[in-house]
Amino acid sequence: MSQASNDLGLIWSGLASDCAIEDGDLAGENGLETAIILSLFCDARAHDDDILPSGTDFRRGWWADSIAPLAMGGLNLRPDSAANDRIGSRLWLLAREKELPEVLARAKDYAEEALKWLIDDGEAKAVSVRAYMPGDERAARGVREDAESIGAEQAASLLSMPVRLEDSPTGTATPPSVATALAAQRFRKGWLGLDISITLADGSEYRRAFTYPL
Questions:
Q1: What is the per-residue pLDDT for 210?
Q2: 155-158-164-168 Cα dihedral, nearest 10 degrees
Q3: What is d(CA 81, CA 149) in angstroms, rounded to the nearest whole number?
Q4: pLDDT of residue 75
Q5: Residues with pLDDT less than 70, the chain
Q6: What's residue 200's pLDDT?
Q7: How far apart, in whole angstroms, are the C-alpha atoms of residue 89 and residue 5?
Q8: Which residue segments constitute the domains of the chain, with CATH numbers given?
Q9: Which residues does residue 62 pair with via DSSP β-bridges, in sequence order?
Q10: DSSP per residue, 103-137
Q11: Which one of 75, 150, 177, 210 has the lowest number of neighbouring Cβ atoms within 10 Å?
């Protein structure tokens, strides 16, 4: 790994993170990508009042969070924030949840909570997250593209169609592009999309989209 890099570089595959390889060696990174992946997709400890999806009392979290306050006055560059340092997010609590607006609202809150340290540590001025279901957006985009050719009313009804792609609400053959959009909707059920937008301290912008299996 390059000595000029401070972090081991991670990449996000859509299912999990992995080490980045560059010229046959582990790649390093000095940007935000690795920090954001760790912040979002490591499991933070659940709050005492959180309902656990597993039905057990295992609240996960990183063991070193329990000694974070000990870093105060030590090597921590911002000891005033060390007591509240927590690794990861509570996105894992959404496992097995239904695809409902309130679940997306929780996903947004959990992701912004996990990235708040960027503001606390002076690395960023603002953090914004948009949570969505990727399949619904793909299907909606396909329907919009076909709205002119099949009519807005029929296009709007396609998102609630049954899985039988060969039938349209009017009993006629479904246009191929609409069928493709509906197939994408079904295929991506159970996935969460996160659009991350961060305004850094120097005014520059970091933007990244992640998909995450629930």
A1: 92
A2: -30
A3: 57
A4: 47
A5: 1-6, 68-84, 135-189
A6: 96
A7: 25
A8: 7-133+190-213 (3.10.450), 135-187 (no CATH)
A9: none
A10: HHHHHHHHHHHHHTHHHHTTSEEEEEEEEE-HHHH
A11: 75
Q: Which of the 8 DSSP states describes residue 181?
A: H
Q: For position 198, what pLDDT does the model report?
A: 97
CA atoms within 13 A on the CB side of 162: 6
Instruction: Please state, in angstroms and rounded to a whole number, the distance separating the CA atoms of residues 54 and 95.
Output: 9
Which residue type occupies 112? E
Q: What was the pLDDT predicted at 26?
A: 87
Which three-class secondary structure state does DSSP give residue 160?
helix
Q: Decide if 28 contacts 6 (C-beta within 8 A).
A: yes
Q: Give the pLDDT score at 179.
A: 47
CA dist 56 and 63 (Å) reads 18
pTM: 0.70
C-alpha pair distances (Å), 75 with each of 23, 80, 84, 110: 33, 12, 16, 28
List CB contacts of 104: < 8 A, sequence separation 6 or more.
Answer: 131, 132, 133, 192
Per-residue model confidence (pLDDT) at position 193: 92
